[in-house]
Amino acid sequence: MAIDHVLTDGRGPLLQTHDLTKAYGGLLVTDHVSLTLEAGARHAVLGPNGAGKSTLVGLLSGVVESDSGKIMLMGRDITRTASAARVRHGLVRTFQISNLFPRLTVLDNVLVAVCQRKGGSYRLLRSVSGHRDYLDSAEGVLEQLGLIDDRWKLAEELAYGRQRLLEMAIALSLHPKVLLLDEPAAGVPGSETGVIIDAMEKLPRDIAILTIEHDMNVVRRFATSVTILAAGRIMVSGAVHDIMASEDVRALYLGRSGHARFAKSSST
């Protein structure tokens, strides 16, 4: 049963989908999905492989074109808006696999995004010293995410977990209103996951964040609400503690291994 789950903090919605639908041939991968995120939302989308999570993020970010339904960003219909324009309007996505400029420094990776937001030329910036505001903006984001001491390193020199932080810094430097995090802890060693979660918890509170995630420690610590997708449809949506405590969710969606994992997460 699809549920239009509203996360509210007293302000108007930042992102809404209405009956969003996508099929590939005869396979319906997104089945009338309706969601609403308001400012400050911390929402996780869970589901097994093939549930439609990646397609949903693709639809929201504009990488995938919907067959029907509507996507609204701060009251603006962006259903047919190109990805780059969605970024300019305030909807920014990170990727499951890091998407960086490996041979640029950490600072330069962020400066590219700052220049994109401000409408400046990155090539010109490197030869002109009169853009202190650009540098201050980039360094401020790196400071916020604990990457300032790495700013002169090449992106490829960072440990994978810190590359994910850099990707988050790039997204944040674009001043998003809605941030889509596509499995921010994917591939990150368990010893580094805490750093990712700490960074996520420090993100500005007025940003609505939707994260696709498999790591229940990330979900439990970061998200306040959860939507579970199954076969492209919303199976259930609600507060994290309610979802984790649901025997129906454990039995019908997660199976035995998931039951144990959820039970462990909800008891810690």
Automatic annotation (TrEMBL):
InterPro entries: AAA+_ATPase, ABC_AA/LPS_Transport, ABC_transporter-like_ATP-bd, P-loop_NTPase. Keywords: ATP-binding, Cell inner membrane, Cell membrane, Membrane, Nucleotide-binding, Transport. One of its GO terms (molecular function) is ATP binding. It comes from the Bacteria. Residues 15-256 form the ABC transporter domain. One of its GO terms (cellular component) is plasma membrane. Transmembrane segments: none annotated. Gene3D superfamilies: P-loop containing nucleotide triphosphate hydrolases. PANTHER family: ABC TRANSPORTER ATP-BINDING PROTEIN (PTHR45772:SF2), CONSERVED COMPONENT OF ABC TRANSPORTER FOR NATURAL AMINO ACIDS-RELATED (PTHR45772). This is Amino acid/amide ABC transporter ATP-binding protein 1, HAAT family. It comes from Paraburkholderia sartisoli.
